[in-house]
Task: inverse folding
């Protein structure tokens, strides 16, 4: 590949916390970032489902901070009104769980509803091919490097299309999760949260009780356990919803019927076995991968993985640039 220009463009595939953390660090190091996301919005599992007047944080429920870097980020987001404490040492985005990632994404060009399916090496860098046949990075402006900010099973085939080998990604294992979203006209009695280490359900939360949410209408998010989710993985959402509601009804001790109910499947919901390293980087190909699969099933892990990869990339790419000058 040829040498780098002073403001080279990096392609980041995946607009979740890892990809956006990488983008911020690379931007600070002097690189332009263009982000590609196959979904309609940014955030990955920091997601909120909207249905009429109802709002459900149906993916990640909260995040915690252990390290200095993520604590600083949370302090900044809190000062800007995008994050608020919820319980104990946990935080949520305001007014929805993905508020901080949306604030991060607003600084960049984000190409939504675009699934990148292959990488092509050309003189000067990389072209990206999407599922509709469009090629990104053409017209003599290929991407100087690529970040795969994706679940490991999705990153592997893209890396292979570029001739990159990241063996550690093969070791990653995920637990799936079926999520039920249920809304009610009346307020249900009892606590706002339930957590279970065993059984068919792992988590129930009154979404409408989180900071910055409208307390009415009453909205609940119910997560099935990994074992239950695996057992019912290939059922349809319409089949799963009433099954999960029967399990949740006994916990909530209510005879109320949801006015709205829908299920969503997260196939790669929670990392059960991590890779041997927090991120991977091929300096020769200028391709890296990051995600919570490197450090564990926490939002902070995704942030740290993306930021860590970006630091290594910036250092590696600067050496190439210096050598050319």
Result:
């Amino acid at each position: 590949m040829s040498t780098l220009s002073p403001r080279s463009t990096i392609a980041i595939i995946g607009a979740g916390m890892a990809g956006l953390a990488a983008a911020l660090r690379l931007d600070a190091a002097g690189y332009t970032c263009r982000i590609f996301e196959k979904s309609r919005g940014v955030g990955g599992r920091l997601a909120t489902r909207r249905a009429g007047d109802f709002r459900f944080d149906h993916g990640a429920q909260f995040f915690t901070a252990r390290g200095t870097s993520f604590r600083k980020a949370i302090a900044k987001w809190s000062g800007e009104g995008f994050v608020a404490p919820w319980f104990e040492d946990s935080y949520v985005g305001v007014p929805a769980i993905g508020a901080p990632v949306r604030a991060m994404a607003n600084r960049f060009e984000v190409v939504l509803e675009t699934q990148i399916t292959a990488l092509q090496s050309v003189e000067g860098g990389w072209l990206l091919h999407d599922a509709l046949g469009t090629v990104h990075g053409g017209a003599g402006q290929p991407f100087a490097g690529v970040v795969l900010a994706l679940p490991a099973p999705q990153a592997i085939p893209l890396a292979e299309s570029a001739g990159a080998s990241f063996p550690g990604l093969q070791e990653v294992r995920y637990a799936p999760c079926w999520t039920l979203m249920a809304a009610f006209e009346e307020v249900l009695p009892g606590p706002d949260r339930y957590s279970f280490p065993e059984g068919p359900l792992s988590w129930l939360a009154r979404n409408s009780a989180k900071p910055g949410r409208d307390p009415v209408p009453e909205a609940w998010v119910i997560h099935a356990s990994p074992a239950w989710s695996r057992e019912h993985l290939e059922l349809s959402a319409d089949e799963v919803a009433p099954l999960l509601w029967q399990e949740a009804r006994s916990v909530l001790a209510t005879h109320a019927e949801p006015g709205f109910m829908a299920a969503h499947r997260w196939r790669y919901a929670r990392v059960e076995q991590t890779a041997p390293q927090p991120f991977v980087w091929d300096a020769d190909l200028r391709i890296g991968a990051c995600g919570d699969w490197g450090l564990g099933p926490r939002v902070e892990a995704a942030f740290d993985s993306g930021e860590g990869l970006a630091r290594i990339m910036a250092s590696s790419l600067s050496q190439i640039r210096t050598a050319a000058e």
Notes: The first helix runs from residue 17 to 28. The chain has seven helices and 19 strands. Residues 192 and 206 are 5 Å apart (CA to CA).
